[in-house]
Amino acid sequence: MNRRYAEKATVTALILSSALVLSGCPNQNGTATIRYEQLGACNGYKEGNNVVSSGPTAAYVLFKIHWLDNTNGKVNFAYDPARLFVSSLNAKPSLTTTSQLTQKIGVLATAPTTVSGGKNLGHEGYAVVIVPTANSPDPQIEANKTNYMLSYDNPTSNPGVLMDKKNSGQTQYQGVQDCLTKSW
Predict the structure, then answer these.
(1) Bridge partners of 53?
(2) For the chain, does the N or the C end have fewer beta carbons within 10 angstroms?
(3) Sign (positive or negative) of CA dihedral 41, 42, 43, 48
(4) By C-alpha distance, which of 102, 83, 111, 108 is closest to 42?
(5) Any alpha helices (H) in the chain, and if so which ranges?
């Protein structure tokens, strides 16, 4: 009878812990949401007689950060784009906003900002990450068939952060070999 009780208690504990994992633990500072979109990938660009490349087995993937919503935050949200990373990669290469690529394609890079608790801020900034691909003569093809999800390495002083990908169900993206030939 003790064994049966122990098994029942173990199952109950597993169910309860699973519910906590699925629902997430509430953050005492509230929750902020980063809404973003994956735009596509490219291999690099020409600059004069030089070629700037992501490498033979890598591609540039572009993201647009649409808004920072801290309406459910109880404290200010100190957004730092250097804390964004692609969650499916083993290493955590952060997105870059200082990349010459964002300057070359003529878009505004996502920038650090603070969003007050209870406020929402339209952002419209771009970020780039270099992702590894299989050995291919055209790595952007593989990257444009991959749905990359972003995560945020959040400090405890911030509200909790939810990542909301606008096109999360999309599995094909339109990319190009030369990053400068596309209007992002």
Answers:
(1) 44
(2) N
(3) negative
(4) 102
(5) 2-23, 100-104, 139-143
